[in-house]
Design a protein that fits this description.
The complex is a heterodimer of chains A (387) and B (393). Chain A is an alpha+beta fold and 387 residues long. Helices cover 52% and strands 17% of the residues of chain A. The longest helix of chain A has 37 residues. The longest helix of chain B has 36 residues. The chains are: A alpha+beta (387), B alpha+beta (393).
Chain lengths: 387, 393
């Protein structure tokens, strides 16, 4: 610590150069923060899908609805605590950019299957009392500033009503919360009543959509999934049962190999940065060789000099890195406000750890060669400025 | 004056090898920016090419009103025969309308790392006749009434288990891949095709997702208007009419916009970093050359040639970086085929397309970064007090 002033002073020896290098580092880490957060968003790193829930869909595709008649058979499977079903509604709220998922479901079953979601009792009663009633997650309600009592018009992309009109209107009677933070992954969704939906839709009546199974024991998920699928094998309604997490992840995976693209960009950025910062550091040391020789003459050990130069490069990288990461956090705050298409995402601990590790590695990689050189200086040559 | 500029600039350019390490910072920094820019944009370009190259202006696609994708469209079985007979639809040699009521369903195929959604399209015989771009390149066409499919060439490349003779299981029954078709690399090549009636009965959907109709000659645009008027005039239909090409072009919009936004953000940040790298390099180049510059000024060279020489150096390095970045993006990505989820919620295979336009755009960015990175150091070079600089050297 007592050398901090010295390191600090040498860092600012050429102010313009240090500032430029810092700004390059800030840019790189800003990008790292943003891309990592985007990656976490797409790999669902921040979504908690740990509830013991299985999704049973038609084998051919989740868009082919399963009929309601499968219900008794699925309910009879031992280990299944509750079964619900839901049909994707595909509604557009005012503008296609306002995308959020809506599902038609049965309130009583919804409550039993998604038991992590807390809906106040009187709101639940209101949902059961009115056929056009709907409930929304807290995150969704806050996104559009909805209050209980709001009338929500939706233009369904999939389901026309009997008269061919695609405009549906629902009354928001309840807003549900997470019981524990992050355990109810559904706070961005809206749920409408299946009975009303089924009676009102023009075609497809009597189809359930997908089934949602809540298990007693999460460890038996795989076995129960296989058992369900075996019951309907070789029938026109073959099923595919998987955990909710796999079901959701498969959507994301299908977008394509995003991680590859993100990591290629980051790789390019860091390679560039390595060269740039490395160049700055070696220049900084080269210019200072006579000074370093003086330090050595007055008794600084080789190791101390090596550590001083290394500390300087680590300080440079950490300063720039932290600046960039802070900026990326700010940028994400702004983005979450402006870009409604995405749920708000935050840099979680993993992102910060990756960033910190990158700063240290970068600092070591660029600092080590000049540091070694400083440590190995021959005093006589250096003082004579023979390089 | 011009001779002075040339002389000083060539002197500074020839001295680059002496400052190779620092000069590389500009080349690599700008190379990175350009490579990322070109690679990302070539992805959205490729996607756009594939979708814009799908369909024809001489064919109309009829979908239920208000939907944006074939998948969510459904036209009831009563409307289909009426729609076929509307004016504006071309008639074949046999007098029958050239129209194909097609059904599109999603099927899940296995691919390493998870299942993927692939479109299965039920096509009527007219649908094959109407699309001259579709050629069977292996095997044969499916036969009506049998559970047979043909797979697009891109689909076979991207997803496993679609080789000739392979069996697929949909809704409890076996389907055989009997042929592979080529449609010029368009979006249909990512699909599986089968006979429309076979698909209708297998998937229990008696109507159609959409009706594709060939527009009557001689002028398809007039025929399209006739068809639109006929549809609007009849209250039995709730149908939108558009050209097939218009539909597929619109499908590329969302993806292209997202990639463009991502590219803009990433490139801007990277360019910001590269500018400071360039500034660092050029300032140190100026300070390395300071006694040389002072000497030149002392023997009567004016400021402009000195300034130009610094700028010329940074621009030369920037352009070298831009060219290297563009070349890298071209070598690594051009023609690489990938697939992503399209608007229809099914996979669309496409290839990265590094076009000359994109390369030029990359060079423009390189030039801009080189100019900014060289300008301020150039200014300093001119302002160096000659006497001090000479003494320092």
């Amino acid at each position: 610590m007592k050398y901090f002033a010295l390191v600090w002073a040498t860092l600012w020896r050429k102010r313009a150069r240090t500032v430029f290098t810092l700004l390059s580092l800030v840019a790189a880490f800003l990008l790292l923060g943003l891309l990592q957060a985007a990656h976490a968003l797409f790999s669902l790193g921040s979504v908690n899908l740990a509830a013991p829930i299985l999704i049973t869909q038609a084998r051919v595709s989740f868009t082919s609805p399963l009929p309601l008649r499968l219900l008794p058979q699925i309910e009879a499977v031992p280990g299944v605590a509750a079964v619900s079903w839901s049909q994707f509604f595909g509604g557009v709220y005012k503008d296609p950019k306002n995308f959020f998922p809506q599902f038609a479901t049965v309130p009583e079953r919804w409550r039993r299957v998604f038991s992590e979601c807390r809906l106040p009792e009187e709101q639940f009663q209101a949902w059961q009392a009115s056929r056009t009633a709907a409930v929304a997650g807290r995150e969704l309600a806050e996104r559009f500033g909805w209050k209980v009592g709001e009338r929500i018009p939706l233009q369904s992309q999939i389901w026309p009503r009997r008269d061919g009109d695609r405009a549906w209107t629902f009354d928001l009677v309840g807003i549900f919360d997470d019981s524990a933070k992050g355990s109810c992954a559904r706070v961005g969704n809206m749920y409408i009543r299946y009975d009303y939906f089924d009676e009102e839709r023009q075609f497809g009546r009597g189809n359930a959509g997908i089934y949602v199974l809540r298990l007693q024991d999460p460890a038996r998920a795989e076995a129960i999934g296989r058992q369900v699928d075996a019951m309907f094998e070789n029938s026109p309604d073959e099923t595919k049962t998987q955990t909710e997490k796999d079901f959701t992840l498969n959507f994301v995976r299908q977008i394509g190999n995003l991680s590859l693209i993100l990591y290629s960009i980051l790789g390019a950025v860091f390679f560039t940065l390595l060269l740039l910062t490395g160049n700055t550091m070696s220049q900084a040391v080269r210019e200072r060789i006579p000074e370093l020789a003086v330090l050595k003459t007055i008794g600084y050990a080789d190791g101390t000099l090596l550590a001083l130069v290394l500390a300087e490069s680590l300080l440079l990288c950490t300063l720039g890195g932290l600046g960039g990461m802070l900026l990326s956090v700010l940028a994400m705050r702004v983005l979450a406000k402006v870009q409604m298409q995405f749920p708000p995402f935050h840099a979680d601990l993993r992102v910060w750890l990756t960033a910190l590790a990158s700063m240290l590695l970068l600092g070591l990689a660029v600092g080590l060669p000049p540091a070694l050189r400083a440590g190995r200086l021959s005093i006589v040559d250096a003082l004579a400025e023979r390089r | 004056m011009l001779r002075q500029i040339l002389a000083v600039s060539s002197m500074s350019l020839r001295s680059i090898p002496q400052r190779l390490g620092t000069s590389l910072v500009i080349v690599v920094g700008i190379g990175g920016v350009v490579a990322v820019l070109v690679a990302l944009l070539s992805m959205s370009k490729g996607f756009e090419y594939t979708l814009k190259g799908t369909g024809s202006d001489a064919r109309a696609l009829l979908l239920s009103a208000g939907v944006t994708a074939e998948l969510s469209s459904y036209i009831g079985p009563d409307s289909v025969p009426l729609l076929r007979e509307l004016p504006g639809v071309r008639r074949g040699a046999d007098g029958k309308p050239l129209a194909s009521a097609e059904i599109v369903v999603i099927t899940e195929l296995r691919r390493h790392g998870g299942d993927v959604n692939v479109a299965l399209r039920g096509v009527e015989p007219a649908g094959i006749a109407m699309r001259p771009e579709v050629r069977i390149v292996e095997g044969r066409l499916f036969r009506p009434g049998l559970q047979e499919v043909i797979a697009g060439r891109s689909a076979r490349q991207q997803f496993s288990g679609l080789q000739l003779g392979a069996r697929l299981q949909f809704r409890g029954s076996q389907w055989t891949v009997v042929g592979i078709f080529d449609s010029g690399g368009d979006a249909h090549e990512s699909e599986l095709w089968t006979d429309a009636d076979t698909a209708r009965s297998a998937f229990g959907r008696p109507g159609a997702s959409g009706v594709l109709a060939e527009l009557a000659p001689p002028d398809p645009a007039t025929a399209l208007q006739t068809l639109k008027n006929a549809v609007t005039a009849d209250p039995r239909f709730q149908v939108d009419v558009q050209t097939e090409r218009h539909y597929f072009t619109a499908q590329s919009q969302g993806f292209t916009e997202q990639i463009t936004l991502l590219t803009a953000v990433v490139t801007a940040i990277m360019a910001f970093g590269a500018v400071f790298g360039a500034l660092n390099t050029m300032y140190s180049a100026v300070s390395a050359r300071q006694s040389e510059i002072a000497t030149l000024r002392a023997i009567g060279f004016s400021g402009l040639p000195v300034m130009v020489s610094v700028l010329a150096e940074s621009i030369a390095l920037a352009l070298a970086g831009g060219a290297a970045g563009g070349a890298l993006a071209y070598l690594l990505f051009d023609g690489m085929s990938v697939s992503t989820l399209g608007q229809n919620f099914t996979q669309v295979a496409f290839s990265f397309a590094v076009t000359p336009g994109l390369l030029l755009r990359g060079m423009a960015w390189a030039l801009a970064i080189g100019l900014i990175g060289g300008f301020f150091p150039a200014l300093r070079a001119v302002r160096l007090p000659v006497a001090d600089a000479l003494r320092a050297g």
